[in-house]
Amino acid sequence: MLLDDYEKNYLLYNSNFKESFGAGWAAYRGDLVVVEGEIADAQGRRKPPVLSLIGTALLAQADKIVMLVGSLDNLADITTLLDKYKADFAPGVRVVIYVVNIAKPMIVTVDGVDVVMLPMADGMVWNEMVDELGLDKGDFKGQSAGQKVLTLFEAFKGYKPKYEAVGLDEALTRTIEAKRAIYGAV
Prior knowledge:
Strand content: 35-45%
Largest sheet: 8 strands, mixed
Strand order of the largest sheet: 1-2-3-4-5-7-6-8
Number of strands: 8
Number of helices: 5
Number of domains: 1
Structural class: alpha/beta
Shape: globular
Oligomer: single chain
Order of helices and strands: HEEEEHEEEHHEH
């Protein structure tokens, strides 16, 4: 399965869970490595990733990604992300990326993939996506972790964002100076 291949290639990082269920469905939550860290020792172990999609919620069916949600610090990294994973995208894949360095939501088409870009410097991707789709806790009651990702995807099918559609070059001119809010132990 696709997620098993990702795991073998050390592309799943800070994993919350990886679950296969039903008729060829596979779900993952955690971080998705975009640029691997360099090899650290003779055993081939790697340093932490240079770039990852943070807070990823990924759903695959029949070895194709049907939904990808996560967060990037820098809008310019979207091309690196898509270059790495777009070969695994199913036709009509649903992609939402929360981006730290944008001020306004937008829809950007990159290499034929429509990507909804939403600003977020503070928060959890899963919670923000649940709110964006108008879901609540009751919608997930009694479901396994993987089934919750499938429920998110089912709600996503009817999602019709009304944000401005812009090209990638235009989107890159709309970035702001912002840093991800990180909180330590309280």
